Amino acid sequence: MYPNSEQSKKLHDTLNACRWVYNQMVEKTNKEGFQTRNDLNYFLTELKESEKWLYLHHSKMLQMVSTQIDGAQKALIQLRKNGHKTGNLKFARFSEYNTFVYNQSGFEIKDGFLHLSKIGKTRITLHRQIPENSEIKQITISKSKSGKWHACVSCMIDAILPKIDFAKSVGIDVGITNFAYDSDGFVTPNPLNLQKMLKPLARIQRKISRRQNGSNNRKKAVRFYQIVHERIRNKRRDFLHKLSTQYASKYDAVFVEKLQRMNMVKNHRVAQKILDSGWGIFTNMLDYKCKMMVEVSARNTTINCSRCCSMVPKSLAVRTHRCDKCGLVLDRDHNAAINILKKGLGIFGPLSLSLPQELREVKPVEISTRSRKQEAACFSEW
Q1: How many other C-beta atoms are found inside a 10 Å radius of the C-beta of residue 377?
Q2: What is the C-alpha separation between 219 and 214, in angstroms, rounded?
Q3: Whether residues 232 and 359 fall in one domain
Q4: Fewest CB within 10 A of the end CB: N or C in the chain?
Q5: Strand bridging mode 99-103 / 135-143
């Protein structure tokens, strides 16, 4: 979004109004206990009667704040049922509340402009065209740390279930030196965007520490610090989007290992590089881009030989897999990727073996009629 000065002021005023309403509802829930969505909407009506300036903002957009509070309350209740210790809802700070939602009405996209009720017509650049004959359900407006405005458009489209050819399957092993090593032998080096920008980040952090708290020079330094981090994030996401799209367009079924990333980062020698790699973001992108993405157990994928299945223990320093029984010699990540592929295909063994090798095409609904979460739980058990 490219708002002018007047539109930018209205966007900031809308954001501040949503944050104020959010904090008022948080205060009410903390004092009186659980509040239903209808109770919060009645409370919003009372706030409008006492604070007339709220009428300057779109009513449906303000009602989405009550939906947000309702979801947060239910999430806390579920956490308590699961045995976690939770407190009350927290108030939103000025720098933490950066999103508001237009749902069902109050917006229109036409001729390169986005019209928002009570804000006006803003020039936008679409990163891809909205599908024809699709209905726009809601638009989420967000402000980045560097001050840029973005709009996320959610559309209702007719989904067509794709056919899956298991002959077009690949296993992917992720790592630090090589971000991805697949079962076909394709290697993708890890860019490690944060590692390349550590010196500029250290320099700007020293500059921030030398500025006086509350001064304009400190605010400028903090803003530049946020811009540098945003550039790092954009580079990382650009790399992950391109790589995930490459695999999604080339293969029908993608198998990745299910890593316990929170346990892995306890090793402080590699924790920064693991978090910088963004393995979880890459898996999420594969999940919604690929026809089928399955996480398989990472147990013994590096140790087992991909040819004879004998165990070949090796430390992290050993980067080459050498099997004494069958004589197989190849990169350890390539060996792990082949094992991941075999484990993934083993999940669908009875199904895939019942089809001819060259005609392994099935629909996802034939694999399982359960939800994706249920499938993932079943896969982890197997």
Answers
A1: 12
A2: 7
A3: yes
A4: C
A5: antiparallel
- The whole-angstrom separation of Cα 58 and Cα 15 is 12
Q: Which range of residues forms the domain containing residue 60?
A: 5-156
Same domain, 171 and 148: no
- Pair (180, 279) in one structural domain: yes
Residue 166 has pLDDT above 60, yes or no: yes
pLDDT in tens, 357-376: 333 344 343 333 333 433 33
Higher pLDDT, 374 or 271: 271
* Residues 300 and 349 both lie in one domain: yes
Let me know: does 314 contact 303? Beta carbons within 8 Å. Answer: yes
Q: What is the mean pLDDT of residues 254-277?
A: 88
pLDDT in the model for residue 210: 94
Within 10 angstroms of residue 29's Cβ, the number of other Cβ atoms is: 20
Q: How many helices (H) and strands (E) does the chain have?
A: 13, 15
Tell me the one-letter amino acid at 203: R
User: What is d(CA 362, CA 114) in angstroms, rounded to the nearest whole number?
Assistant: 41
Total domains present in the chain: 2
pLDDT tens for 310-322 read 888 888 888 888 8
In this structure, the answer to whether residues 177 and 311 fall within a common structural domain is: yes
Q: Express each pLDDT in 328-364 by its tens digit.
A: 888 888 988 999 998 888 876 544 433 333 333 443 4
**How many other β-carbons are positioned within 10 Å of the β-carbon of residue 14?**
21
Among 110, 125, 156, give the residue marking a domain's end: 156
**Whether residue 82 sits in one domain with residue 174:** no
CA distances from 255 to 3, 271, 282, 343 (A): 43, 24, 12, 8
| Cα 59 to Cα 118: distance, rounded to the nearest angstrom | 10
320 close to 313: Cβ distance less than 8 angstroms: no
Taking the whole predicted model, whether its pTM rises above 0.85 is answered as no
The phi and psi torsions of 98 (rounded to 5 degrees) equal -130, 20
pLDDT at residue 321, rounded to an integer: 87
Same domain, 228 and 363: yes
DSSP 152: E
Which pLDDT value is given to residue 62? 94
- Type of residue numbered 312: V
The token duo for 323 is 């099997």
